[in-house]
Specification:
mainly alpha; two-stranded antiparallel ribbon; globular
Amino acid sequence: MSNPFLERVEKDARSGYAGFHEPSAQERAAGQQTQQQGYSQQSYGQQGGYQQGYDQSGGVQQASHGHQLGQPGGPGQPTGYRQYGGPAPTQERAVTLDDVLMKTAGLFAVVLAAAAPAWYLAPTMPFLGLLGIAATLGLGIALAFMKTVNVPLIVALAAAEGVLVGAISRSYYDVFDVAATGAEPTSVFDSIVVQAVLATVCVFGAMLVLYKSGIVKVGQKFRAVVGMMTLGYFVFALINLGYALITDTAFGIGGSGMLGIGISLFAVGLASLNLAIDFDNINIAIQTGAPEKYSWMLSIGLIVTLVWLYLELLRLLGRLRSE
């Protein structure tokens, strides 16, 4: 598991969120008229219409990640992010933090709704986890390369993540909570699943504090290094999955030994760094006045990282309990 939306927001911000705006016929006509006026002004030695329009839309400001990006449009105002030589900005509302929080809560509810039946069906449908992995990979890659926001596919990806979480969580519960003790845990906090959930919440909170305090700073080099490491781990995870299926090994390469524990610690750390990038993506989108519907992309990116972090923590706890 990895987050396919790592570099998406920064690239979309630099392109002015091209493809995410849907101008009406009147707005396109107004853009063409502005274009013609700009050329006319240039012929008389005045400032070009494009540059003038760009400056009037709010200019640029230096964002936290080091690129020049447009200033945000306020709630209920046009986004104000205009491409050089492009049509006039549409009158759509700019994304806010509340938009991202609401979409994230909604998608998280979808994850839980899909995880619940998967939890109960997993013992009789052992292939359910693999089905969740395949669906998550397919939908995630498709969304990562789309130039528009496809809400149905985003919701479907959240549901696939839920199936994956439910099926894998149940398998860990059966092995480490029931089979290992011969009975269900006497305390809910003794469950490996609950411990993984609590650990995920703690890591999320810690990374949010580190990011907001400026201790963890997300810049170009940070994104590049984490992106390459994530891609490398993604390839390793696919190889490890194949190895585990072929050799019938519980955790694949490294097993539950020191090598395996080291791999899990590395994966947890990498997923945590991805959280910092998710936080920065949200910040960039708000600063640059991304369209409101872009909040769907930000939310599903955060959900994917949280699910990945949870699964890695679950694997780490499983390896530690196997010692």
